[in-house]
Every structure is written in structure tokens, then in C-alpha cells.
Write a structure and sequence with these properties.
This protein is of the alpha/beta class. The protein is built from five helices and twelve strands. It starts with 5 loop residues before the first helix and ends in a 6-residue tail after the last strand.
């Protein structure tokens, strides 16, 4: 498989940028996991300090999909840990973006998975099964809709209304 580079995708799709169909999320994420880049169709979650839905979604088949978790930017607990990351690998998820924190980063860094998160935090979440799935979420200056296409690499995270080729 050819590696997609965000820089090349942006350079080669200036018309989509002008049409606001290709957007760049503000640089805020740390990189975790054994893979440096990923791309796929977006599945969204909006929740706050409760990762019950994260577990449920990562338990589903994820080939060709990217999970985007809008955790409200909370830095008070972790929404993803090594067990959920292992579940994501088992079910073939392409990558995970967390607008919040993760934990067990050393273990996650050994997995064949790519994760973006604001930071790490050792505390786990509460489990109240509260949150929403498959809705538009907004952070980093970008609104991300379910079914859109997301690509992330060492240079950043981009979102498009359609899959892009290098």
C-alpha cells in the first residue's frame, strides 16, 4: 500500500481546500502507537470522561475506518488505554483520534496502531454509558462528520469530504 502524506494530499488538492471540502485540524495532538500514519472513513463519538462507547465501537469491525472521539478536550482522565487499543487492533481499526487523553502509552506504542491524543493521563474514566455516536464533532477549528475521510501522519491531521489519492 502506498503511504499517503498529508503534505502531498494538501498540495495536490488545493481546489478542495478552497472549497472547504479539505480541512486541516490545528496542530494539537501527540502521536502514539507503533504505526506513524493512517487513513480511513470517520466514525464519530461525542462524550465526556466516560469511555463506555469507545469500548463498544472498537468492539465492531473497523477495517477502513478511523474512530474520532470528541472528549471535550478533557485532561482529567484517559479515554483510551492499552486494552481498548488492543481491541482496536484485533478488529482492524485504521487509527484513533482522541480529543482528550489516553493512558498506557508505553504499551500502546508497541501495538500496530496509530493514535492521536492531546496527552496522557493515568486515571481511567467513569462508566455511565453516556455519549453520542455518528454526529458531527468540532475541535481544532474543524467540524468532522461521520463518513468523511481522515488522514494523519507525522505532519498533521486532515479531513476531507471524499477519499484522496496521493
Amino acid at each position: 500500500m502506498t503511504t499517503l502524506l498529508t503534505t502531498d494530499l494538501l498540495d495536490n488538492n488545493e481546489v478542495l481546500i478552497q472549497q472547504e471540502r479539505l480541512r486541516v485540524i490545528a496542530p494539537m495532538f501527540q502521536r502514539y502507537g507503533g504505526k506513524t500514519s493512517f487513513a480511513g472513513n470517520v466514525v464519530t463519538l461525542k462524550l465526556f470522561e466516560d469511555n463506555s462507547l469507545v469500548r463498544a465501537v472498537l468492539g465492531e469491525p473497523g477495517a477502513g475506518k478511523v474512530l474520532v472521539v470528541d472528549g471535550g478536550g478533557s485532561l482529567r482522565c484517559a479515554l483510551l488505554g492499552d486494552q481498548l487499543a488492543e481491541l482496536a487492533v484485533k478488529n482492524g481499526w485504521e487509527g484513533i483520534v482522541v480529543y482528550g487523553c489516553i493512558r498506557d502509552s508505553a504499551a500502546i506504542n508497541t501495538l500496530p496502531l496509530s493514535v492521536r491524543a492531546l496527552n496522557t493521563h493515568p486515571l481511567k474514566t467513569v462508566k455511565k454509558n453516556v455519549g453520542e455516536r455518528d454526529i458531527a464533532v468540532t475541535f481544532g477549528g474543524v467540524t468532522i462528520k461521520p463518513g468523511e475521510w481522515l488522514c494523519a501522519d507525522e505532519d498533521g491531521v486532515i479531513v476531507s469530504t471524499q477519499p484522496l489519492a496521493g
